[in-house]
Each structure stands twice: as structure tokens, then as C-alpha cells.
Design brief:
It contains eleven helices and ten strands. The strands form two sheets. Strands 6-7-8-3-9-10 form a six-stranded mixed sheet, sandwiched between helices. A four-stranded antiparallel sheet has the order 2-1-4-5, with helices on one face. By secondary structure, it is an alpha/beta fold. The radius of gyration is 21 Å and the shape is globular.
């Protein structure tokens, strides 16, 4: 498949030439396929947040290139704002960045900066609000009067209203209850399906990665440790452990079951897959698994 956005030999140094100099990522090469949902995982300090800020031009590489559709995003520095419209970034806890007087105005902020007509701004605001499940009667309320989950949806709607070709979300479900998590991820899947967008999700949840990602990139110590399908990544439990990560809990359970003589497969990463495997064994053996 074709790479939508990629980094080539990219390094980034914070506070260069000072006593506080730190290389956050070092000589990183990584490609994110067009129209694919990719999970970006790694222990705290591995460079994930720095990488995603490099992808949308909030940070400029110390060395190397970031390519969007094969073009260096810093080829024309004065046009970097246009890159940020094409590569939308939702920060962790984005609700803390709300600032407008009404929900409508907050969602409309980026489309207004894109120079769109009032009619198109209104269409995009209402379409993105519907996508994240915000009711029409909330549009003229202050975003600060909403619940935490609603604020999160307003913030995400503000990025979706730009209709970015690449959507990056840093821990989009952090702090939400199971219903809120499900709603956020359903929104992401809906947007990706409608716009054929490239989606990158930063997460510490191996369960979310197993459920929603089609590709996974693992970072360790400012480098890319590996990139592959979830199935291939989660088979490498020892490498993940060395990187300060883990396999999904359901995988760990299936590994334990096999060790006890269950005779089951261990390449299981979701609850649904585990259910199917247990039903298969029960049918094969004519009874419940020991």
C-alpha cells in the first residue's frame, strides 16, 4: 500500500546546545499507510508525542524529513499551517483547550482559519457535531457547561471539522468510562470509513490496539522497535515486555490456559476471538475446556 505520511531519518533534539539538551527521537524511519488505522505504542518517554507533533508540523525535525504524499512538509515553511489543516492532531485531554463562548464557535474555530465560507463552516460544524454525538440544542451552550465526555467530543469535533486527510489522536479515550471509550472509538471508525482517512492512535491500552488498529508501531528509547500487524506484534510478548509494554489481558489469559493444558491457540487478542476459540474447543471436545 501507499504511504500517506512518513518520516525519513528524523531526529529531534529539545533545547539544543544547552545543558538541557535531549534527543527525543533518533534517526527514525516510519511510514503510515494511506487509509489505515495505525496504533502508536511505547513506554512513557519513548518519543511518541514528539513523533506525532513532527507529523503535523508543530515541531520541525532537527534532521531528516517528514513527507506528506511524498512532499517534505517543510519545503515551504510559510505554508506549514496548511499542513496542520491536512494532518489534524487531537491532543491528550483536548477538552482543556476549549476557549470559545459557545460549542458552535469552538468547533468552527479551525474551519474559520481555513478561510471557508460561512455556509461551509456551518455545514462542517453541524456534520462533525452529529458524528461525535452532540445534540443540536448544545450548539449554543458554553462548552464549559458540558460534562467531561461532552467536552472531549466538542474538542474532537473541532478537528474533524477540518476534514483532515490524516487524523492523529493522542490517548483519545484517556479517563473515560467504558461507554465513553466505545463512543469515541466508534466516532473514529466512522470518520475513517467516510473520509478514507489515515488514522494514527497513540495509546497505552493494548486492548484498544488489538480491537481497532490494523497496524502497530512500537517505540522504545527514541527509536522504532518494530512495526507490523497486531497479530504479529502481540506474538512478540518478550520484546513488548522489554519495551515496558504488555500483550492484551485476554492474550495473557489464553497463554495461561494453554500452559494448563487447554490445547487452545494463543494468537488471541480480543474477547470476541477468545470466545470463538473457546466455543471451538468445546465443540471439538464435546464439553467445556478444562
Amino acid at each position: 500500500m501507499t504511504a500517506k505520511i512518513e518520516v525519513k531519518n528524523v531526529s529531534y533534539i529539545y533545547s539544543p546546545n544547552t545543558p538541557f539538551q535531549k534527543e527525543a527521537i533518533s534517526q527514525v524511519n516510519c511510514a503510515f499507510e494511506a487509509g489505515v488505522i495505525t496504533g502508536l505504542i511505547g513506554h512513557t518517554g519513548s518519543g511518541k508525542s514528539t513523533l506525532v507533533q513532527l507529523l503535523n508540523g508543530l515541531l520541525k525535525p532537527s534532521t531528516g524529513e517528514v513527507l506528506l504524499d511524498g512532499v517534505n512538509i517543510w519545503a515551504e515553511p510559510k505554508k506549514i499551517k496548511n499542513v496542520r489543516f491536512r494532518v489534524g492532531l487531537v491532543f491528550q485531554y483536548p477538552e482543556y483547550q476549549l476557549f470559545e463562548e459557545t460549542v458552535f464557535d469552538d468547533i468552527a474555530y479551525a474551519p474559520k482559519n481555513m478561510g471557508l465560507s460561512a455556509e461551509e463552516i456551518s455545514e462542517r460544524v453541524h456534520a462533525s457535531a452529529r458524528m461525535v454525538g452532540l445534540r443540536e440544542e448544545l450548539m449554543q451552550k458554553s462548552p464549559f457547561d458540558l460534562s467531561g465526555g461532552q467536552k472531549r467530543r466538542v474538542a474532537i469535533a473541532g478537528i474533524l471539522a477540518m476534514e483532515p486527510e490524516v487524523l492523529i489522536l493522542d490517548e483519545p479515550a484517556a479517563g473515560l468510562d467504558p461507554i465513553g471509550r466505545k463512543m469515541i472509538f466508534e466516532t473514529i471508525l466512522q470518520y475513517q470509513a467516510q473520509k478514507k482517512a489515515t488514522v494514527i492512535i497513540v495509546s497505552h491500552s493494548m486492548e484498544d490496539m488489538a480491537e481497532y488498529a490494523q497496524q502497530i508501531v512500537v517505540m522504545k528509547g527514541s527509536h522504532i522497535l518494530m512495526q507490523d500487524t497486531p497479530k504479529a506484534i502481540f506474538k512478540k510478548a518478550e520484546l513488548l515486555t522489554e519495551a515496558g509494554l504488555d500483550v492484551p489481558q485476554i492474550t495473557r489469559m489464553m497463554m495461561r490456559l494453554q500452559a494448563l493444558g487447554g490445547g487452545n491457540r494463543t494468537d488471541i487478542f480480543t474477547v470476541q476471538a477468545a470466545r470463538d476459540e473457546l466455543l471451538r474447543l468445546m465443540g471439538k471436545e464435546g464439553g467445556p475446556v478444562a
